[in-house]
Design brief:
By secondary structure, the chain is α+β, with helices and mostly antiparallel strands. It has five helices and ten strands; from the N terminus they run αααββββββαββαββ. Helices cover 43% and strands 23% of the residues.
């Protein structure tokens, strides 16, 4: 019995001794843990791959394309080239069309300008034609003007100004000159004798109306003057000028130069001289 008790004591003695060991402090335990984790980290870093320090290099081995893949790739390249050619030709066609449209637009603009110009000219011509048809026309070119010589040798001529237009003439001014000149005329021209005086009166002449003006020779007309004129050595000149404004506000003028000599003077009438006869 004593042997059994001794044997049991020997078996439980180590267990009792272990239970009697002191419990380690918290600082010692934490230190041990840090040393253990540092050791573990160093161990893991030693064998870790795929990091910045230990990169992993992967080599990809591309297999050779098959015949079908090569045919498909060639077909894709041909389609892409054909599409690019189509884009290029489309762009060129659009550019050419744009240029043609631009040139056409310029020509149309020029034609429209020309048409507008012609239209303006047509309107101006029609307006001018209308004004010419309606405006007043005064004329003093009446050659059936009798030469009057009274018993005292006073020569006078009555001139007539007529409105041949369709509208009245306003602000009409008229002046005449009569004189005897040698033929041919050398130094003094009777056309230079027509001058409008500042105090000359103005009048209006209705369509178809006749305005009369009488002018007399300043010097006495003698029998000797009659003989020379009838022989053609001298001539009686009658120069007249009128100015007026039509209903459209435009100013016009008319000039006449009449001559009486030889047989014309014997009939006491006038004929047109070769110059000095103008009207507008």
């Amino acid at each position: 019995m004593i042997r059994i008790i001794i044997l049991a004591f020997i078996i439980f003695l180590p267990t009792l001794a272990q239970s009697q060991e002191p419990i380690p402090s918290a600082s010692v335990s934490s230190k041990n843990k840090k040393e253990h984790s540092s050791h573990t980290a160093n161990k893991s870093n030693t064998y870790n791959r795929g990091t910045e320090k230990n990169p992993i290099f992967i080599t990809e081995i591309v297999p050779e394309p098959t015949a079908d893949e090569r045919d498909a790739e060639a077909k894709d390249r041909d389609q892409k080239a054909s599409y690019e050619r189509w884009i290029v030709w489309s762009t060129i066609t659009i550019a050419i069309f744009t240029v043609v449209m631009g040139i056409t637009t310029i020509f149309l603009w020029m034609e429209s300008k020309k048409t507008a110009w012609f239209a303006g000219q047509t309107v101006a011509t029609m307006k001018d034609t209308s004004e010419r048809q309606l405006r007043a026309y005064l004329s003093n070119k009446i050659i059936e003007i009798p030469v009057n010589i009274d018993d005292r040798g006073k020569l006078s001529v009555t001139t007539a100004v007529k409105n041949y237009g369709n509208t009245p003439a306003h602000n009409m001014m008229g002046t005449n000159h009569i004189g005897i000149y040698n033929l041919p005329i050398t130094d003094t021209n009777p056309l230079d004798k027509v001058i409008f005086a500042d105090e000359i009166s103005k009048s209006s002449i209705a369509p178809g109306e006749v305005y009369y003006m009488t002018i007399a020779l300043k010097k006495q007309f003698t029998q000797n003057d009659i003989s020379i004129i009838e022989s053609g050595g001298r001539a009686l000149f009658l120069v007249g000028k009128i100015k007026y404004v039509d209903v459209f506000g435009k100013q016009h003028s008319s000039k006449c130069c009449l001559i009486s000599t030889g047989e014309t003077f014997k009939s006491r009438t006038f004929s047109y001289y070769h110059e000095g006869n103008e009207e507008d």
